[in-house]
Amino acid sequence: MCGIIGYLGYREAYPILINGLKKLEYRGYDSSGIAIFYEKGYSLCKTKGRVYDLEKKICLNKIKISGTTGIGHTRWATHGIPNDLNAHPHVSNSNNLIIIHNGIVENYYAIKIVLSKNGFTFKSKTDTEVLVNLIEFVKKENQLSLEEAVRISLNEIVGAYSIAVVDKSHPETIVIAKLGSPLALGINDKEFFIASDPISFIDYTKNALYLKDGEMAILKKGRELDLRKIGDNHKLNPIIEKLKINLKQIEKGKYKYFMLKEIYEQPKTILDTLRGRLLISTKGNEIICINGIESNKDVFINAKCITIVACGTSWHASLIGEYLLEELARIPVEVEYASEFRYRNPILDRRNVIIVISQSGETADTLAALKLAKKKGAFVFGICNVVGSSIARNVDAGVYTHAGPEIGVASTKSFTAQITVLILLALKIGKYRSVINELRYKNLCQELISIPEKVDFVLKTDNSIKKISKEYYNVNNFLYLGRGINFPVALEGALKLKEVSYIHAEGYPAAEMKHGPIALIDSNMPVIIIATKKGFYDKIVGNVQEIKARKGKIISIVNEGDVQVSMLSDHIIKIPIISEELSPLITVIPLQLLAYQIAYIRGENVDQPRNLAKSVTVE
d(Cα 54, Cα 325) in Å, to the nearest integer? Predict the structure, then answer.
């Protein structure tokens, strides 16, 4: 995944591009670059490394940065290693066309061979340089305008893209297009802003258009937006939306890293996700309102099974959803990796419900799984965080998580927001199907309201977690154990540690420890155990004793008032007592804090861990 930005208007483009790239850096930070256009020419600078390195290079080389048209890019490498040559923008052989690109051109090699036979040469190892030269070839051979050359070229492309292209001879025009990768357009009087994520232009306008797959736009200075279909050049009527992003949500405030800020935001984001959906009156009536379920009530009542499809952290939330839906709604549930589901030939029909979960709503594998499910006639329900995203626009029904912008690459608040939605879905569907006891339903609804306060309590354990982190920040391996609904929490805790600290960690069901992982346990192996009172506690005690007998270092997450596990542990982190169904919302918090604190002590860049991007919009 990469971040692209562009500006066309009356202001100086450089500060808009640089500030926008800084906000998009969570999308890719292997390399970055900009091109600023002026009459009949342009200045281009790109470099391996961060946007800070780009600014430094521009300053040291005294590169001209004056102009009111510009495009910029921050890269997460797919084709070609991170270096100056492979950084964007890329330039055609004639130096006339300049492009920035997010996505993958799958048939780039075949196109490259054809272009090579026609005299084109290539400096980089990227598919993007092939694309810009294809556009140049089509334009020159057929004497076409830039927009028509782009349209024809994109009809030959297999893959995914969002692009912005400029011809240096006409710096008053930018052509943009989208298929599979996100692209938003900010619109003001006499100016346009282009971005992978509208947070990069929210300072300037809240009027936005989200391009749909297969759409392109021709932007001309001082002209109205010209929106068209790539396939047949049919002119479209643009639909402008008002952005509802709060600027404070995309600023760190008092926190050093976004990850820590987003961990501490969870009492609010869980409450925001519940707000308007869980209604508890003074008369003791508990009502869950989810329009996407209510308007499709019969679909969920008559569903023969539910398949949840996701990737990464969202997949872990899906596993928790499996426990919840089977326990509270009594529907068979399967959880699939989107990357595997899309390449299988799943047996689906109209009685299958597919739930797709994605923070960004742009995850390539999940989006492809969605399209496959719809093609086979299944009903598709979406859970995502980003309004107007591709998944939100393509599902039959869905629900937003209301977690707000998540900038840290390692997902935290989106995970608990997804779990909150899944709890609400399970309770709502269970009520519709008349399979949940009324008292249990009421008690869980009441407890849900208390969750933000309980999360806030757990956040106050951060100082004790810092002490534990100082003792174990330099180890090579961690083992995470949980049972039942907290097994996926163990997986998520291990993933968080791997992502931000680069320490190898594995999550296992606690009972599976003796089937292999116990061979690893010695005095150098810290083992984190989720040992809640209401979740197979006696069995967990036995697992702890097995670790203790082998001199493993035990870090336990226990309920207040715990005795047995606490006596056996080297360290304990206390959390409030909560029903087992809701416990993942609480047990994951100390694991997020532990991952953050260990990475911070190790001096890692917590928000932008190496080799990772926030949203994987390519395969």
Answer: 49
CA dist 464 and 467 (Å) reads 5
Residue type, 185: L
Structure tokens at 392: 């939100």
In angstroms, the CA 446 to CA 422 distance is 16
- Using DSSP's 3-state secondary structure scheme, residue 246 falls into coil
pTM over 0.85: no
Domains of the chain: 3-245 (3.60.20.10), 276-453 (3.40.50.10490), 460-612 (3.40.50.10490)
> Tokens 């790539």 map to which residue?
230
Per-residue pLDDT tens for 275-328?
A: 889 987 656 677 899 989 999 999 999 998 999 999 999 999 999 999 999 999
- Residues sharing a CB contact under 8 Å with residue 164, sequence separation 6 or more, in sequence order: 4, 6, 71, 99, 100, 174, 175, 176, 194
**DSSP strand E in 311-396: where?**
333-337, 352-358, 379-384
Q: Which residue bears the tokens 């968080």?
A: 496
**Minimal CA–CA distance to 367: which of 425, 311, 292?**
311
pLDDT at 315: 95
Between 40 and 170, the higher pLDDT residue: 170
Q: Are 17 and 7 in contact (CB under 8 A)?
A: yes
Gap between the Cα atoms of 124 and 254, Å rounded: 41
- Active site (catalytic) residues: 2, 614
Contact 1/618 with Cβ under 8 angstroms? yes
As given in the structure block, the two tokens for residue 56 are: 């430094």
Average the pLDDT over 334-338 and give the result. Answer: 93
Band of pLDDT at residue 250, cut at 50, 70 and 90:
low
Position 432 pLDDT exceeds 60: yes
Environment class of 266 (CB within 10 Å of its CB; exposed 0-12, middle 13-18, buried 19+): buried
Looking at residue 223, what DSSP letter applies?
S
- Mean pLDDT on 146-153: 95
Task: From 210, 203, 209, select the one nearest 245 (Cα to Cα).
Answer: 203
Tokens 């710096």 belong to which residue?
171
